[in-house]
Specification:
mainly alpha, two-stranded antiparallel sheet, hydrolase, 2 strands, about 90 residues, translocase
Length: about 90
Amino acid sequence: MYDGTPRSEIPAEERNLGLVFQSYALWPHKTVFDNVAYPLKLRKVAAGEIKERVQRVLDQLGWGTLATAIRTSSPVASSSGWPSVGRWFTTRR
């Protein structure tokens, strides 16, 4: 059910929903940009629009400078319960 409407009969790929995994389900060999862009690529969104939308989201999260970073290790929780981004990613050169 979503927005008061049953959605179980709609195939998952047509539900227009996204998930944020709490277990940090990221591809370690991909950049932050590529991990965020993946669902848009699956939907065959134009490359220019993907670039614009992903960068806008990363900027909104304060992660704009991490677009070319790759995941280097398991996230280390900070005292707030959120991962410490500085220890989580490294910039690909």
